[in-house]
Amino acid sequence: MYAAGAMTTVISALQRYLCGIVAIQEIRWTNVGNIKLRDATILYSCGQSHEYGVGFIVNNSILPFVKNFIPHNERICTIQLECKWGYIAVINCHAPTENKEDQSKEEFYNQLEIVYDSIPHRTRKITIGDLNAKIGKEQIFKPTIGNHSLHEISNDNGNKLISFAMSKNMTISSSHFPHKEIHKQTWISPDGHTKNQIDHVVVDEQLKHSIQDVRSYRGRMSGHSDHFLVKVKLHIKLPIKWNQKRKTSRKFELDKLKEEQIANEYRKGLKEKKVNNLNLNYQEHWTQLSKTIKGVTEEKIGIVNNKRPNNGSMKTVKKQYKKEIRQNRW
């Protein structure tokens, strides 16, 4: 994302793949902030140097359901979404590579555990990102990792990720779905020969049935990325905006205009309140004219009353109906 034109390329690719929320790593920007674009908003958490950096790209249609964004450091950030039944916290992380020292790996997983434990217990959690972990097919870990990983044996980062998932009662969903090998590969080496599955999706046990599919798409996000897009299909229900009440359209009694006296009064009212201000532009002139017409129409003609007569509740009506039937029988 630090290269010139990379942000535009990534946004256009996400629109092509119809992604609502995207977790991105190695942004390589500085500090913490957000960028509002026409169709999406970028929330990012980076350090002081152009190295690492994580964040989210959120479609503006989903932005009202984002409750908070917490930037922890240049490797971990969290976003919280409101659903119909509660909240979902998505933890975006970028783990150290396999050849890093054990101390840096332990520090990363300690920080990840602190972030995970800081989220309320009732909030469902998803850990996603470039975890640099190869997940194998060991039978002892089958309930956690499934049967459809690209690799046969887990590496050191893979064992650390499996241990973290098992300690938190989570499932690694990225190795649970059967796909072709080309749809499991998430990273390709610069020479184009080595291909690994190192980007993963880890979800809570209560949320694993909401994950419908996880697979990678070989179309690259930009010319500077060696990772493929990993798309997760998550079935959740967003809350209804109860505060946005429907505006009922008002209907005027236009049949009254058939009467000559009312029609003359209506014309007279429009002439008296005619808009004659020449300093207004066309938009202001139209707004003023629309208010004038609606006001005169409501005053001279009136609004149709669509309210139903209040004859009591349905329970009372049924009770009265049954009483009349019993009286007729006698």
Supply the key terms.
330 residues; alpha+beta; six-stranded mixed β-sheet; 7 helices; 14 strands; 24% strand; elongated; Craniofacial development protein 2-like; Endo/exonuclease/phosphatase; Endo/exonu/phosph_ase_sf; catalytic activity
Verbal overview:
The chain has seven helices and 14 strands. It has helices at about 5-15, 100-120, 140-145, 155-165, 260-270, 280-300, 315-330; strands spanning about 20-25, 30-35, 40-45, 55-60, 65-70, 75-80, 85-95, 125-130, 170, 185-190, 195, 200-205, 210-220, 230-235. The strands form four sheets. It has a six-stranded mixed beta sheet. It has a four-stranded antiparallel beta sheet with strand order 1-4-3-2, with no helix packed on it.
What does the average pLDDT come to?
85
| Structural Rg | 30 Å
The residue ranges in which pLDDT falls below 50 over 5 or more consecutive positions are none
- Helicity level, as a percent range? 25-40%
Tally of strands: 14
Based on CA inertia axes, which overall geometry fits? elongated
The structure class reads alpha+beta
Largest beta sheet: what is the strand line-up? 5-6-7-8-12-9
Helix-strand string: HEEEEEEEHEHHEEEEEEHHH
- Sheet bearing the most strands, described? 6 strands, mixed
Distance between the termini: 86 Å
Number of helices: 7
| Content of β-strand | 15-25%
